[in-house]
Design goal:
globular, 74 residues, 4-stranded antiparallel β-sheet, alpha+beta, Alpha-Beta Plaits
């Protein structure tokens, strides 16, 4: 998984509409997105701009799991 961001809300909305049908991933409260590396060339091919911040650390991946568990409990 890699961490990416989008330049603005409009691009983010467009990207999420594209990604949700094709790839699994997570949106963090910080506005960062965790997506599989295979999503990057697909986004680029569709002309959706994004910034790669690097591979998702173990801590960041665990953050998404903790958040999902907390959402389930509430």
């Amino acid at each position: 998984m890699v961490v990416i961001t989008f330049p603005d809300k409009e691009t983010q909305t467009k990207a999420l509409g594209f990604l949700i049908r094709r790839f699994s991933g997570k949106v963090l409260k910080s506005g960062e997105h965790l997506v599989p590396e295979a999503a990057l060339p697909a986004l680029a091919a569709h002309g959706i701009p994004f910034t790669v911040h690097g591979k998702a650390s173990h801590e960041k991946q665990m953050e998404t799991l903790r958040g999902a568990a907390a959402d389930t409990v509430q």
